[in-house]
Amino acid sequence: MKKNSKEVNRRDFLKITSRFTAATIFIGLGGSELFAANHENHNEISIPTVTLNNGIKMPRLGFGTNTLVDAVGVRSVSEAISVGYRLIDTAHIYGNEAAVGEGIRLSGIDRKKLFVTSKLWVDFAGYEKTKKAFETSIKKLGVDYLDLYLIHRPRGDVKGSWQAMEELVAAGKIRAIGVSNFDPEQLKELMSYAKIVPAINQIETNVFLQESILYPFLKGSATQMEAWSPLAAGRSGIFSNPTLAAIGKKYEKSIAQVCLRWHYQRGVIAIPRSSQKAHMIENLNIFDFELTASDMQTIASMDINTTQFPEWK
Questions:
Q1: What are the tens digits of pLDDT across the range 32-88?
Q2: Residues at site: Lowers pKa of active site Tyr (predicted)?
């Protein structure tokens, strides 16, 4: 997803519980220069995982990087790893794979502790182009394999791309493969020739677009659902929404935390993005409360079945 000039600034205030404050003191770092090659600064918080259809475990909460480029991207990725994120999501079209790779390197973390995702852009659809695009991505990232590689959009020679990706899995270069922005019919078409079932379908889903058709379809399949821009990039006034604020007040949680907990309880992987360390930490602090069935129903009633990113349709 590309940046939109209408994107709303992150919430105006940050509610922090006493538990969260203690955690911040424990993991606080002085700046990006302090976490280069210093493993003891990595906060090993316990983020729940989901087992994908090939047996690989993937964190259920990760860090998105779209629009985080150059020095901001390097710093943000390094800080995200330092505060506990292990799932790092990027893509060729984001133009930041090199910055993400540098952030990983500066963090000093063992590569095997990370779950790194990138995506194939439509310009490189097809068997040969996919192989070359993959090699370019891992070179920019400075890694020798990817944990997850996705076809970013269902355009062009999807069949050729999927064949190439299956071969890269067999060669040990990719641990899992999947798709992004595929609807049920497009998934069925892919499955008509696929040897490997997609492990992930990364799509737009948020409280305003709850995917009433695709969500149950994926829940009944072997393909895990993942949400890009799980906080709707601040659009439609999400961070000042009174319904979400009222729910958050009950638990002393922010609107962002309520939304991310909602995704978690629906069984959807979420990859929120932020360049601010306090927000990175806040977004991780969703595992000490639980939304009630009533809360979940209230949020379900917010669905307007409308994309928040019409420029991408």
A1: 333 333 444 566 788 999 999 999 999 999 999 999 999 999 999 999 999 999 999
A2: 119
- The residues facing 275 across adjacent strands are none
> Residues within the annotated binding site?
152
Cα maximum dimension of the chain: 54
Active site residues: 94
From the annotation, which residues make up the binding site for substrate?
152
According to the model, what pLDDT value does residue 198 have? 98
> What is the pLDDT at residue 45?
80
